[in-house]
Backbone:
């Protein structure tokens, strides 16, 4: 097997150069981190499940006209994606109060918000991903006003679609994080959805019991992290081929 050049390694994924110009191979790791890398562990099979879940959701978003970086799934842990210039902003969409907003604003966890709330953070582990405003974004030219409008519109569309999709399988979409990038095709540039959508960057609660089915189980030492991720995949109908027994199966990290 030809070894490809490693382009970037983050906390949960590794990017390698792709087979064609303008493409990358995205490898999903089992590594789990929280609090910007302060807490670390390994969750067996997490990378396999996140690969499948993110693939499924990106394909569904493509179907409704949300442009994104996903091209195809290569194997259990790898995707072929479009190479983008990441915009250094994390977009947080909140439907229900949970996590840091409760601490910052004194809200009770589980309180439904009057409407979807969009927050922006600067993508910087060193600075602990500080919250920023639209004024910060345009002043420091992290994104143009037009790009910011596109990001906001796409984020709200993604929220509307995913909220309905998850409600249909008995899951509440509490909040989630999105990242966007600039995709260059010749002289044309388009802002598209990038990164991943999975229980790693979504808060997902069971509709009936409010049981957490996401990475909060790891953050809060609740246990059952693997089971929670599998449950999300099961409800989406996308457990890996052969079922849970495949989660430990080897797959290429080039």
Residues:
């Amino acid at each position: 097997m030809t070894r490809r050049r490693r382009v970037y390694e983050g906390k949960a994924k590794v990017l390698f150069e792709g087979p064609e110009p303008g493409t990358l191979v995205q490898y999903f790791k089992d590594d789990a981190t929280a609090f910007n890398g302060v807490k670390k562990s390994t969750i067996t099979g997490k990378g396999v499940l996140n690969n499948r879940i993110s693939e499924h959701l990106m394909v569904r978003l493509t179907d409704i006209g949300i442009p994104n970086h996903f091209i195809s799934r290569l194997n259990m842990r790898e995707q072929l994606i479009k190479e983008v210039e990441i915009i250094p902003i994390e977009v947080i969409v909140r439907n229900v109060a949970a996590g840091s907003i409760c601490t910052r604003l004194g809200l009770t966890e589980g309180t439904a918000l009057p409407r979807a709330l969009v927050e922006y953070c600067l993508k910087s582990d060193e600075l602990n991903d500080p919250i920023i405003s639209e004024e910060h974004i345009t002043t420091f030219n992290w994104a143009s006003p037009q790009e910011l409008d596109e990001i906001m519109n796409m984020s709200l569309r993604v929220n509307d679609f995913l909220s309905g999709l998850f409600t249909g399988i008995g899951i509440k979409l509490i909040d989630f994080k999105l990242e966007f990038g600039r995709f260059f095709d010749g002289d044309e540039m388009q802002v598209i959805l990038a990164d991943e959508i999975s229980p790693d960057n979504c808060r997902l609660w069971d509709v009936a019991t409010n049981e957490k089915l996401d990475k909060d189980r790891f953050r809060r030492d609740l246990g059952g992290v693997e089971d929670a991720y599998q449950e999300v995949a099961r409800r989406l109908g996308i457990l890996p081929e052969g079922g849970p027994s495949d989660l430990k199966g080897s797959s290429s990290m080039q």
In short: The radius of gyration is 18 Å.
